[in-house]
Amino acid sequence: MRLLVRFMGFLFAAGTVVFLVGVGAVAGLIWHFSKDLPDYSQLQDYEPPVMTRVHAVDGSLLGEYAKERRLYLPIQAVPKLVINAFLAAEDKNFYEHGGIDYTGMARAGLVYIQNYGSNRRPQGASTITQQVAKNFLLTNEVSFARKIKEALLAMRIEKTYSKDKILELYLNEIYLGLGAYGIAAASLVYFDKSVNELTVAEASYLAALPKMPATLHPVRNRDRAIERRNYVIDRLQENGWIKQADADKARKEPLAVTNRSNGAHTFAGEYFAEEVRRDIFERYGEKKLYEGGLSVRTTLDPKIQVMARKTMVAGLVNYDEQQGYRGAMSKLDISGDWGVKLAEIKSLSDISPWRMAVVLETSDQSARIGFQPSRELGGAVSKQRETGLITLDGIKWARAATGPAKGRAATAVSQVLQPGDVIYADPLYKDGNPVEGQYRLRQIPKCRARWW
């Protein structure tokens, strides 16, 4: 019995020594890595680079200038849906833990063991606070030392700043792909909406992006992007932040991203916007222009601008057409998929409703044309092929500009157009109304004009 007591005493003493050594080692480790921690107090005065926006006289957007596309949004202006989506995706216990989520770490470890050997991506255990520490104060180096510093900084940040402040920093700093930093810019880039207009599906997609924005590209990796979006929707429902019916509806919603149009392009004000950019650069310098978040109101009136351009273009086109038709811009081999080949030819982007097309077949009465297909957000050529007809009414103006037949009107469409001709065309109008499916041959004027 005495031997057993002695043995138990020995075990207790040994355990105590091991415990004290362990505590000492941990304390020493903390002291070692705490010596050169970055100054986290700088987060209080954080001023991120914000893009400058130039507006027309009526408030319409003319242009945006930035090295990082970002609009800073106070946490009070972020909808609860968007906040919950990011918490569901990244850190559901954010408002409960003190910087490190031990429950989340244990859960991630359990999932890792369960999925070991399955090639599935390990579940992350970093909290939003840890991500703030890494993004603002540390590097992306993958090392044990960085993880320790990240954890230490996270605990200190939690003691210094409110949860809302930490979340505000995170939501405005994260990179979400396509050149967008922060949720406000990403909402505009992906969906051309403010954050207050986002649906459950849209907010969930943005919340899925922080860890792997390139992998979840909405066009190149659409299926993977939808799968991850739906994962976030499931977590929102599981946490009780959305109803079953809302979750079911969101999962069925297609991932439809929007290619934002340039206001200067819409109002034919590209040169005006460029002059404004140069003026800002000369007055305030490069840093203020691209990082200062300036909001510039100009004198450009979009309605007058469009009217002036329309009048000038009509005069140029009428004059040029009176000189005759000079022939196709170029020739294209239309065998196989003509759409892919036509998409490779650079077309003018500021002459809508004119569109580049290729002649597919001709007869005396008409020519069938195929329009240049659009490109998807990822750069791939759209699979949709749109065609139309140019009849005799669409080539009435196309008299020969040179040669023996100069000035003579065409009596057949095939005298003007041949298969493979690359041209421009726009809708044909009769009595002020467009004729469905029919188009008018167009020609880029050789003469030039400008107005001030």
In short:
Keywords: Carboxypeptidase, Cell shape, Cell wall biogenesis/degradation, Glycosyltransferase, Hydrolase, Membrane, Multifunctional enzyme, Peptidoglycan synthesis, Protease, Transferase, Transmembrane, Transmembrane helix. The protein is of the alpha+beta class and 452 residues long. It is built from 15 helices and eleven strands.
Task: Walk me through the structure.
β1 and β2 (61-65) form a beta hairpin. The protein starts with a helix and ends in a 10-residue tail after the last strand. It is 42% helix and 13% strand. The model is unreliable at 25-33 (pLDDT under 50). The strands form three sheets. Strands 6, 7, 8, 9, 10 and 11 form a six-stranded antiparallel sheet that branches. Among the domains are: 71-252, Biosynthetic peptidoglycan transglycosylase-like (Penicillin binding protein transpeptidase fold); 317-442, Nucleic acid-binding proteins (OB fold (Dihydrolipoamide Acetyltransferase, E2P), Beta Barrel), CATH 2.40.50.140. α2 (80-90) crosses α9, α4 crosses α5 and α9 (222-238) packs antiparallel against α10 (244-252). The protein is an alpha+beta fold and 452 residues long. It is built from 15 helices and eleven strands. It has helices at 2-34, 80-90, 102-114, 128-137, 144-160, 163-173, 183-191, 200-208, 222-238, 244-252, 263-266, 270-284, 286-291, 302-322, 338-343; strands at residues 52-55, 61-65, 69-70, 180-181, 295-297, 330-331, 355-362, 366-371, 387-391, 421-430, 433-442.
